[in-house]
Amino acid sequence: MAALCRGRHRWKRTNCLYVLTRNLTAAQLGQKVAVLDYVEPSVKGTKWGLGGTCVNVGCIPKKLMHQAALLGTAVKDAKKYGWQISGPVSHDWATMAEAIQNHVRSLNWGHRVQLQDKKVKYLNIKGSLLDEHTVKGLTKAGKETILTAKNIVIATGGRPKYPTNIPGAMEHGITSDDIFWLKKSPGKTLVVGASYVALECAGFLTGIGLDTTVMVRSIALRGFDQQIAGLVTDYMETYGTKFAWKCAPKRVDKLSSGALQVTWTDTQTGSEHKDTYDSVLWAVGRAPETKALGLDKLGMQLNNETGKIVLGADESTSVPNIYAFGDIGEGCPELTPTAIKAGKLLARRLAGQSTELMNYDNVPTTVFTPLEYGCVGLSEEEAEKRHGKDGIEVYHAFYKPLEFTVAERDASQCYIKVVCERAGDQKILGLHFTGPNAGEVTQGFAMGFQCGATYSHLLQTVGIHPTCAEEVVKVNITKRSGLDATVTGC
């Protein structure tokens, strides 16, 4: 939950105390460090081990379940490639879940070992702040511990929200805090929300053969490039995921059969609808874990709407000697690698070994939907907003991955968009890629953004044939030209 640096524990002096953070750098830099980590069980009672959201109920199990879904598609493709697969192919949730959960537990253990090896004191207690140098910790049994330190670092992350105005939502629904730890298949599932969490979960549930519907109140992938968001959801629809567009849930009732009856309203027509599901997964946003920290008593500045902590460029809060990073920071990307890097840089500064600040510009990310979407830099909308429609040039291409050809898979939504400044060297402002291995592709091109890559740099780069990433360095059709951007030939 927080971190103390160069201070005093009730029974030992401590240089730095971190609460719920994966950052181990401070100890390696000679600081005495203690880490407070405590998982409040979800509404459904789900709890997990050391490592935070990413390891336990985020990136790691999500990517592994996404992989399970991709393998299902690969089995279908395999027949076209000559593999003789006899009998029907089916998926067993329990086998997948047990294997993934065991892997996560091994990561929990690995973090415990790393903390011990690096001489970091690990305390499985829930912390709250008493002042800028003091943290009160409570064990599950209610035993109190007081820790003091020169510096405190808060890295508590966030937790999924439940809608508060929908009867039955909390009683009968689950969130991403639960889906990865289910022992049994969620069955027919309604996913409410259209964030990347919602779409990723719906995607892998569909991919392993479950009847899955996504209920979208407004738009999908808010904050991402909206043309690409449309391609991602179009692909999901052809892939088998159902979408209830412009719909808002009204209530959830549990029937005597055990099924969940969901009542919702079509916001365009005002008509009311009902259907039954085995599970309702709420993916309607996340709230920062700041309420139980006692920040109001310290007078710490928060964003009243989001509950997030207002930070300076050096991750400092409005209270001296208290720092924060990750998802609880106002305006910070809610991405694990961003938090890890910010934490490492902060540790170096607190140890007096660096003055380098975190650069939050051009952070790459990928949405692991059935058709993956990787991006870095600005969306077309944001670039146009900042530079004007006549101030940008958008190069784009619809391409067909070679692996889709023999399998006769539809590639209508495989697309590349490179957003550039129109004048001068045509500096690249944003790069967007939908297709196989989008994360791997985007990670490579992301380095170019740190070097001030231009469109001419892209054209000077030799592609690796025959890859999907190669198509990025070949884009030459502009949207402005109106020419067909479909790639032909190999």
TrEMBL record:
<keyword id="KW-0521">NADP</keyword>
<keyword id="KW-0285">Flavoprotein</keyword>
<dbReference type="GO" id="GO:0005829">
    <property type="term" value="C:cytosol"/>
</dbReference>
<feature type="domain" description="Pyridine nucleotide-disulphide oxidoreductase dimerisation">
    <location>
        <begin position="363"/>
        <end position="474"/>
    </location>
</feature>
<dbReference type="GO" id="GO:0004362">
    <property type="term" value="F:glutathione-disulfide reductase (NADPH) activity"/>
</dbReference>
<dbReference type="GO" id="GO:0006749">
    <property type="term" value="P:glutathione metabolic process"/>
</dbReference>
<dbReference type="InterPro" id="IPR036188">
    <property type="entry name" value="FAD/NAD-bd_sf"/>
</dbReference>
<dbReference type="InterPro" id="IPR012999">
    <property type="entry name" value="Pyr_OxRdtase_I_AS"/>
</dbReference>
<dbReference type="InterPro" id="IPR016156">
    <property type="entry name" value="FAD/NAD-linked_Rdtase_dimer_sf"/>
</dbReference>
<dbReference type="GO" id="GO:0034599">
    <property type="term" value="P:cellular response to oxidative stress"/>
</dbReference>
<dbReference type="GO" id="GO:0045454">
    <property type="term" value="P:cell redox homeostasis"/>
</dbReference>
<feature type="domain" description="FAD/NAD(P)-binding">
    <location>
        <begin position="24"/>
        <end position="343"/>
    </location>
</feature>
<dbReference type="InterPro" id="IPR023753">
    <property type="entry name" value="FAD/NAD-binding_dom"/>
</dbReference>
<protein>
    <recommendedName>
        <fullName>thioredoxin-disulfide reductase (NADPH)</fullName>
        <ecNumber>1.8.1.9</ecNumber>
    </recommendedName>
</protein>
<dbReference type="GO" id="GO:0050660">
    <property type="term" value="F:flavin adenine dinucleotide binding"/>
</dbReference>
<dbReference type="InterPro" id="IPR004099">
    <property type="entry name" value="Pyr_nucl-diS_OxRdtase_dimer"/>
</dbReference>
<keyword id="KW-0712">Selenocysteine</keyword>
<dbReference type="GO" id="GO:0005739">
    <property type="term" value="C:mitochondrion"/>
</dbReference>
<dbReference type="InterPro" id="IPR046952">
    <property type="entry name" value="GSHR/TRXR-like"/>
</dbReference>
<dbReference type="InterPro" id="IPR006338">
    <property type="entry name" value="Thioredoxin/glutathione_Rdtase"/>
</dbReference>
<keyword id="KW-0676">Redox-active center</keyword>
<dbReference type="Pfam" id="PF07992">
    <property type="entry name" value="Pyr_redox_2"/>
</dbReference>
<dbReference type="Pfam" id="PF02852">
    <property type="entry name" value="Pyr_redox_dim"/>
</dbReference>
<keyword id="KW-1015">Disulfide bond</keyword>
<dbReference type="GO" id="GO:0004791">
    <property type="term" value="F:thioredoxin-disulfide reductase (NADPH) activity"/>
</dbReference>
<comment type="similarity">
    <text>Belongs to the class-I pyridine nucleotide-disulfide oxidoreductase family.</text>
</comment>
<keyword id="KW-0274">FAD</keyword>
<keyword id="KW-0560">Oxidoreductase</keyword>
